[in-house]
Design brief:
The protein is mainly beta and 126 residues long. Helices cover 0% and strands 50% of the residues. A hairpin with a 4-residue loop joins β7 and β8.
């Protein structure tokens, strides 16, 4: 069974940091792009960041540029999201995704991926 499992979420004060991890099992994801999305209460899921299979190229939503960093360790079948300078508006369930359905990186922000994790909650208090 192919799975993506996120971890690292929690409750943190504004200005703090977290490092989210997403580890795959059941197959290797080292040859696919991976991404992070988030969904706040009452809002639609939104794109956060994605990374190409070798990690050479990364893409970010404007709202997180300069504060979030996506990276990956293919030997561990894991993608990370380092979140710094957290704001209350970053509160959401964060999901990782793997293997975009489209080859074109310009479409990866749309959220069309073959595999999704179950999510990890990030709550930022003011």
């Amino acid at each position: 069974q192919v799975q993506l499992v996120e971890s690292g979420g929690g409750l943190v004060q504004a200005g703090g940091s977290l490092r989210l991890s997403c580890t795959g099992s059941g197959r290797t994801f080292s040859s696919t792009a991976m991404g992070w999305f988030r969904q706040a209460p009452g809002k639609e899921r939104e794109f956060v960041a994605c990374i190409t299979w070798r990690g050479r190229n990364t893409y970010y939503a404007d709202s997180v540029k300069g504060r979030f960093t996506i990276s990956r360790d293919n030997a561990k079948n894991t993608v990370y999201l380092q979140i710094n300078s957290l704001k209350p508006e970053d509160t959401a369930v964060y999901y990782c995704a793997a293997e975009p359905k489209s080859y074109y990186a310009s479409t990866w922000y749309l959220g069309e991926y073959n595999y999704w994790g179950q999510g990890t909650q990030v709550t930022v208090s003011s």
